[in-house]
Amino acid sequence: MLERMLEVILLTLLSDAEKSMQKTVEVVDKEFASLRAGRATPALLDKIMVQYYGAPTPINQMANINVPEARLLVIQPWDKNTLPDIEKAILKSDLGITPASDGNVIRLAVPQLTKERRTELVKVIKKKAEEGRVAIRNLRREANDGLKNQQKNGDISEDDLRRLQDEVQKLTDKYIKEIDALFVAKEKEIMTI
To answer: Any idea which fold 2-34+114-191 has?
Structure first.
């Protein structure tokens, strides 16, 4: 009975580590999506918050966002009175695009990226990818510390500890490879003219 309980605890520890690593990869993927790569995508506006009735609100919760052309975003607010607030929020953001409004919709023309800006963006995504890898390594350390505590308490043998640490390492390698693949894909997208 005690052995079965211990097995459940260890499986939970591994499962929790894997879920946390998966969430880290998802966060890195969202970070990459929010970076401008010369193409219009609604994800560019994800981090921009608009003051709407005193509360910061994402643009996608107050308007329809369409991509009629490869380099054009059209924002159509549900409440026309919010148009100036959305424009101000876009101007204050680090997006680097000037909104054009006709009183009904806001158009964002995404400019072609310069070579210098592309190189800069690659450095940014490289940094974000490394932050993701570090987060996954920290999760590995936490899982291994939990396993070592189980071994210190006499709950698992040294052989079990090594076997479980190998499992944690396999998870770590798997999710770091996923981050590397996301990085390579985003780098290719940014550098493609």
So the answer is: Topoisomerase I; Chain A, domain 4 (1.10.132)
